[in-house]
Design brief:
Length: 480
């Protein structure tokens, strides 16, 4: 089955047919750098990182662009609030660009810890003001935008397809639904392309409208995606919260500028915290660096990858703890494989090939990572049986390790190249060796009640003994 991607614009899965054969171009909306990245950012960027990795695994040459919004993200649905970065700069008593630089660095530091591959290009909104002004002037020439009191707005009633992505109708966007509509707008849904700047506004640029101004939020991605990926590219992605108004406004401008634009629109679903939407005002908000103080970033990555990118994910400490336990089960199997010397054997592809096929079938179905991880656990069970044999084929050992490294490592990013056992893991392994020996002692002395008691107590905490002709092994089960 060829790769199928769920296209948010058509609400259905479609075969992936890239603009240029053998290549894949991706644009994903990046962070607004006015505060530390949070769990919602991790949900989006880990998901798209897996997508990027799989496209590369399939042999496609990729170009990945993810922008940095360092101006123009106005608060409020009506584009009439204060710039988020300016507000934060005032709170910190810093220059806006100093705030943007600081949080940009911290964002990439957090992504590095999550093993998220850095974009090929990370363009900034402030670095593309001329292109935004050029696009705005063209929209004015085409009669799709208008100037009002030194600001420029896109007139949504001039675009008959406006609302197509988010399934909204222009006539239902009534005045006063949530905020008071500025009188300079012709329609409450019209969105700002450019805003007039007051004399003391810290972030402003020369413009042909009022003399000084600054961009709205929605034009930057239109010009930057086209600038680096071409007038038509393969995938435009972002979180579900960007569907409206951001992506809807992007599509409207692209139509107005006569750009083919993105073939596929992909949206990751939201992340909640114990059933509640993340919100700074309610205190239900967790930054990534706060999470990393308690949990391994790789555990966070596994937690996200274990759900489908279009699924709602609920974060809790118990869920993250369970994710960590599951991930360590895989890691232990891989660690055991890597400890075996296979006498120079190289991957042959003769063993376990059905697992590779099943993994790819799952990923080809709109990047179904839960099913892909399930395949790795099935592989782990077969491998543990193999490892219990005294004379396992060296090629089989190498094939298994190679599969884990390529599928779990290169694609999912949850199995690193180096898997050093922690001190606590080494202690657990030593304790289990003692328990195996103690149980064997009881059995040899026909004290079966004591031997069974050890097995039963371990079963209750999710550890299973396997009695084989070659000896007794143990593994962590799903019952923990």
């Amino acid at each position: 089955m060829p790769l199928q991607i769920y296209n948010s614009l058509t609400d259905q899965k479609e075969p992936f047919n890239p603009v240029h054969e053998g290549q894949a171009s991706l644009y994903v909306c990046g962070p607004t750098v006015y505060s530390d990245s949070h769990l919602g950012h991790a949900k989006a960027y880990v998901s798209f990182d897996v997508i990027l990795r799989y496209l590369r695994f399939c042999g496609l040459k990729t170009l990945y662009v993810q922008n940095i919004t360092d101006v123009g993200h106005l608060m409020g649905d009506a584009d009439e609030g204060e710039d988020k970065l300016l507000k934060r700069a005032r709170e910190l008593n810093q220059e806006p660009m100093a705030v943007a630089e600081s949080y940009s660095r911290r964002h990439f530091e957090a992504m590095d810890l999550l093993e998220v591959i850095r974009p090929d290009i990370s363009p900034r909104a402030t670095g593309h003001i001329p292109e935004q002004l050029e696009a705005i002037e063209k929209l004015l020439e085409h009669g799709l935008a208008y100037e009002s009191n030194g600001s420029v707005y896109f007139e949504i009633t001039k675009d008959p397809k406006y609302g197509e992505l988010s399934n909204r109708k222009v006539e239902e966007m009534k005045s006063g639904a949530r905020v008071k509509v500025r009188s300079e707008k012709r329609h409450p849904g019209d969105f700002a392309l450019w805003k007039r700047a007051e004399p003391r506004h810290l972030m402003r640029w020369r413009d042909p409208f009022s003399g000084w101004g600054y961009p709205g939020w929605h034009t930057e991605c239109v010009v930057m995606s086209s600038r680096y990926l071409g007038e038509e590219f393969d995938i435009h992605g972002g979180g579900m919260d960007l569907k409206f108004p951001h992506h809807e406004c992007e599509i409207a401008q692209a139509r107005g500028l006569e750009k083919p634009f993105a073939r596929n629109w992909m949206h990751t679903n939201m992340l909640t915290i114990e059933g509640q939407k993340m919100s700074k005002s309610s205190g239900n908000f967790v930054t990534l660096f706060d999470v990393f103080k308690k949990y391994d970033p790789l555990t966070v990555r596994y937690f996200i990858a274990a759900s489908h990118y279009r699924s709602l994910v609920d974060f809790s400490e118990s869920a993250l703890t369970s994710a960590g336990i599951s991930m360590k089960r895989l890691h232990q199997t891989v660690r055991n494989l890597r400890e075996i010397k296979a006498d120079g054997a190289k991957p042959s592809g003769k063993y376990f090939e059905e697992f590779r096929k099943r993994f790819c079938q799952a990923m080809d179905d709109d990047f179904s990572t839960p099913q892909a991880i399930a395949v790795l656990f099935d592989l782990s069970r077969d491998v543990n049986t193999l490892l219990s044999e005294k004379r396992a084929e060296p090629e089989a050992i190498v094939d298994a390790e190679h599969l884990f490294s390529s599928l779990g490592g290169d694609v999912l990013g949850i199995i690193p190249e180096s898997l050093e056992a922690s001190q606590s893991e080494l202690q657990i392994k030593n304790v289990m060796e003692v328990l195996v020996e103690l149980r064997e002692y009881f059995r040899e002395n026909k004290d079966f009640a004591s031997a069974d008691l050890i097995r039963e107590r371990l079963q209750k905490i999710g550890i299973e003994f396997k009695d084989l002709p070659e000896g007794t092994t143990w593994e962590v089960t799903d019952n923990n």
